[in-house]
Specification:
The chain is built from 12 helices and 8 strands. The chain is of the alpha/beta class and 325 residues long. It folds into 2 domains: 100 residues, SRP54, nucleotide-binding domain (Four Helix Bundle (Hemerythrin (Met), subunit A), Up-down Bundle), CATH 1.20.120; 206 residues, Rossmann fold. An 8-stranded mixed beta sheet has the order 3-2-4-1-5-6-7-8, with helices on both faces. Helix 3 packs antiparallel against helix 4, helix 6 packs parallel to helix 7 and helix 10 packs parallel to helix 11. The chain is elongated and about 65 Å long. Belongs to the GTP-binding SRP family. FtsY subfamily. Part of the signal recognition particle protein translocation system, which is composed of SRP and FtsY. One of its GO terms (cellular component) is cytoplasm. Involved in targeting and insertion of nascent membrane proteins into the cytoplasmic membrane. Acts as a receptor for the complex formed by the signal recognition particle (SRP) and the ribosome-nascent chain (RNC).
């Protein structure tokens, strides 16, 4: 890496850190307000502090199951260290949350595409799922921008054929980013679109193919059947495709996002998560809860409107930003 590239990368990292800090501002403000109330007038971490802390984490949409795990970790630490002051509580919380997320950390999957040699033989295929309104198509556009900006060849497949808006929106994103979009229009066979998109990816030596899918069908059985069919036809072109099933969730919906995640993990094999709209909510704690409860790695987080505001999720960077005063 040359000196110019080093400074360029350093500038990009600082800009991403600033975007993350600003995107989590509402969550941080709410989080620390509640944490201050939990320890007000107390010197040591006792049962009363832990009770208040538990309430605070639940209100931050960390989720009950995950909150219980965090509290248990802190109780064990208090019992081991005998004396823990409330002044140390934010440091302890930070360390225990990072440790909890560590089990679901992964540098594989689509985030590793940037580290792969160009055109490694066949495209890495990502099938993107999620209900309407969570920012699924926008996330695909931002992903395409991320890969395309890194010099990767990208193909998009508009297989959400139940909504004309979804097809049109993806085509617009393709034009903005400068990547081809395979589309058959509305009310066409989604599996046929996915097949053609993967085939196009193979023909042009693409590095990644990203397939949009319908956000909602009549019921879970229909959803499962449709997604299974899309998988089967893609495997006729590339055995093992899709290599990643990325579930997009709206972070601003808090625990409703977790309920959506549960439904989709029953309908298909979700292997990674993208959590969007964190900049407009005080419910950023849901990132911690969903990852810990589902045992599925968070791959990306959305912290703003710009194309560069879909960031790779790093547990330590995220938690440090969350606790930054």
């Amino acid at each position: 890496m040359g000196l110019f590239d080093f400074f360029k990368k350093d500038k990009e990292n600082k800009e991403q850190q600033q975007a993350l800090d600003e995107g989590l501002q509402k969550t941080k403000t709410s989080f620390f307000d509640q944490l201050s109330k939990a320890v007000a007038g107390r010197n040591t971490v006792d049962e009363a502090v832990l009770d208040d802390l538990e309430t605070m984490l639940v209100h931050a949409d960390v989720g009950i199951d995950t909150t219980v795990k965090v509290i248990e970790r802190i109780e064990q630490r208090v019992a081991r260290d005998k004396y823990v002051s409330t002044a140390d509580l934010d440091v302890i919380l930070r360390e225990e949350i990072v440790a909890l997320l560590d089990a679901n950390s992964s540098a594989t999957g689509s985030r590793a595409i940037l580290d792969r040699p160009d055109s490694p033989g066949s495209p890495f295929v990502i099938m993107v799922v999620g209900v309407n309104g969570v920012g699924k198509t926008t996330t695909i556009g931002k992903l395409a921008h991320r890969f395309h900006s890194a010099g990767k060849k990208v193909v998009l497949g508009a297989a959400d054929t139940f909504r004309a808006a979804a097809v049109d929106q993806l085509i617009i994103w393709g034009e903005r980013v400068g990547v081809p979009v395979i589309s058959h229009g509305m009310n066409t066979d989604p599996a046929a679109v996915a097949f053609d998109a993967v085939q196009k990816g193979v023909e042009m030596g693409a590095d990644v193919v990203i397939i949009d899918t319908a956000g909602r069908l009549h019921n879970k059985v229909n959803l499962m059947n449709e997604l299974s069919k899309i998988k089967r036809v893609m495997q006729k072109v590339i055995p093992g495709a899709p290599h990643e099933v990325l579930l997009v969730l709206d972070g601003s919906t808090g625990q409703n996002a977790y309920l959506q995640a549960q439904e989709f993990t029953k309908a298909t094999d979700v292997s990674a998560l993208a959590i969007t709209k964190l900049d407009g909510t005080a419910k950023g704690g849901v990132v911690i809860g969903i990852s810990a409860q589902l045992q599925v790695p968070v791959r990306y987080i959305g912290v703003g409107e710009k194309m560069t505001d879909l960031q790779l999720f790093d547990r330590t960077t995220f938690v440090n930003s969350l606790f930054k005063k």
